[in-house]
Amino acid sequence: MTDPRSPSGPRSRGFEAVLIIVYALFALSATARSLVQMGRDFSFAPVAYVLSLLAALTYIAVAVALVRRGRRSPLAVVLCLIELVGVLAVGTLSVLEPALLADDTVWSGYGQGYGYVPLLLPIVALVYIVLGRRARRAEPAEPAAAR
Question: Which of 67, 110, 129, 130 has its CA 20 to 30 Å from the CA of residue 43?
Answer without folding.
Answer: 110
